[in-house]
Amino acid sequence: MTMNTEPLHIPDGYDMNDGVPPAVPPPPPDSDFAPFPDEIFENLPPHLALACRQFTRQEEKELFLVGALGVLSGMLPNVQGMYFGRMVGANLYCFIMGRYGTGKGALLWARDLGEAIEAHREAQAKESIGKHTEEMLHYNRQLKLYDKGKLPAPPEMPKPPRHLKLYLPANSTKTAVMQLLMENDGRGIMFETEGDTLADMLRQDYGNFSDVLRKAFHHEPVSYYRRANNEDVKINHPALSVVLSGTQDQLHKLIPAAENGLFSRFCFYVLQSSAPFYNPFDESKTEHSYYFGVLAAHFLALYMRLEARTEPALFMLRAEQQAAFVALFDKYKTELRHLGDDLDGTANRLGLICYRIAMVLTAVRFGGSVHIDTLTCITADFENACLIVEQLLKHSLYVYEGLAEQKTDTSVRRNVQKEQKIKEACMCYNAGMIYEDIAVRVLGKATGISTVYRWVRDYCKKRA
């Protein structure tokens, strides 16, 4: 008998006296995405790193970071950088996609980073309302004096108070959004946890401001006509940030196809896990409100220092970072072009998104100093921005594939529906109906008579 001379491997934890092998840990859940590298969270600016450390689950931490970058990008007035010869701000558009019940709650903590600024803006608005009330009382007294001939000229009516906000409601008409942007110096954040809130508004004629979203991403001027005062209003440099979350169906309502200009302007993060029912009494979460309240106060102080600047702080990449940036996005553009011709815009705007993420990280790290006129990006923030974009690109391609499948399915459904209508039109024609009646029955409108005529000519057998 041949003896086996190979060494016996005994797993760690195996008790030879017990005879029961150690429990094998379950395999990790399937995912299309690897976790964000630990170095991303280790190298964040201190206050943002502190915020991320409040979360223990990896996916919550990633979700919060993406949402926080979107929120912080709208809280940095007077921070700009030169990109393709134009001054750009830090503003980002972010969409968190996941099934119902996948645990998007961490996103709400990202919103809390701006709550102190929102409260500050609301207090300013109340103060201006009180001031306006006093001015109107004085105006009305002066107007009476003028009517009695005791003043040589009529008084000037005070301007109405501004609706000062950080967060702008997405369930608004186009005119209302434009009005709020104008009253807030062209700045604001749209934050909605149900993506179809914005999608439903974009589908309405009176609310469709998708053109405003597309232009605002590049700070292109937007204008509208205000009937109340019979005036044209122009916002020369809109600086809008957007953070949305929703399901895949809600995303497809907002962005029906990759060719839609909004797709390439958004950062996407896809939640894939089916979250269990977490303990709502977990004491590790009880300190969240305190921590995020402290962080919100810090970011209010940062906001006020930046807002008080007479000139914008200029964000800059170092020469070696610029060279690495160009090489990286030239590579991305070549790779994406092989995946689809309609991804050219994504590659171009991905570069701007990376630049803006680096701007956010740098401003959060150094922007609180009133004495710094130039915000030079350090190596850690530049590399972090590139790493974050590398991760987000994987999520964007996942969304892109879903949009392509949706487009194919929609095209197939439309073809089937068209075939059914042609078949019904031919049956009506062979039954002796006139073209106008067929159009009303099959297409629901008499104006479709030319379509019915073409179908009959091309597809129907001639009746005897």
What secondary-structure arrangement, pairings included, does this model have?
Blueprint: H1 38-42, H2 46-52, H3 58-73, E1 79-83, E2 86-88, E3 93-98, H4 106-112, H5 115-147, H6 174-183, E4 187-192, H7 195-202, H8 210-217, E5 222-226, E6 231-235, E7 239-246, H9 248-254, E8 266-271, H10 288-307, E9 313-316, H11 319-339, H12 344-366, E10 374-376, H13 379-430, H14 435-443, H15 449-459
Parallel strand pairs: 1-9, 3-7, 3-8, 4-7, 9-10
Antiparallel strand pairs: 1-2, 5-6
Helix pairs in contact: 3-4, 5-10, 7-9, 11-12, 12-13, 13-14, 13-15, 14-15
Give a description of the structure.
- Helix 13 packs across helix 15 (449-459) and helix 14 crosses helix 15.
- The longest helix is centred in the last third of the chain and has 52 residues, at 379-430.
- A hairpin with a 4-residue loop joins strand 5 (222-226) and strand 6 (231-235).
- With 464 residues, this protein is an alpha/beta fold.
- The relative contact order is 0.13.
- It has a four-stranded mixed beta sheet with strand order 2-1-9-10, with helices on one face. Strands 4-7-3-8 form a four-stranded parallel beta sheet, with helices on both faces.
- The chain contains 15 helices and ten strands.
- Helix content is 51%, strand content 11%.
Summarize the structure.
The protein is an alpha/beta fold and 464 residues long. It contains 15 helices and ten strands.
